[in-house]
Amino acid sequence: MKIYTKTGDQGMTSLIGGTRVSKACDRLEAYGELDELNSWIGFVLAQSRLDKEHMELLLKVQNELFVMGSFLACEPEKRSQFKLPQLSSDLISEMEKLIDDIDSQVEPLTNFILPGGGNEAASIHLARTVTRRAERKIVALANDEELSGLESIVMFLNRLSDYLFVLGRLSNMKNKIKETIWKPGK
Prior knowledge:
mainly alpha
């Protein structure tokens, strides 16, 4: 099987189900954001020294992002014809547990903090901002199309961005890197 098909050379691609659409359509933008997010999570995993528990969760997140991408890539009226993997609700609960656990370990927030710190935390914050962008694209898609099941994707991404925020804070704490407090006008 060849990697290139030449079917996208004119700026069009096929959804799961066969409908041809522009590579610039909102649906492709939305699952393209998930693809970019998946790559950023992969970058975090590749260069991180996080605890095994967090590494395993991020790997589960990567798999779930593929599930979400397949959901968005499939024509809504043809979803029942294909055996697409189902979205997991357990992962949201798992993230919430870890968010609470991390939040109990880091100093309470009294100010806004700037993204960054060490390389690990900075890459986690980049993944967090891409998560938020993906969430916005999917909400915009939901405003234009009727996609049942989209609510669970938005909820997942919202929780993931919270998890990545506290994970970045935990990374800085464990690496003894002081967070930079936002100082307006500085």
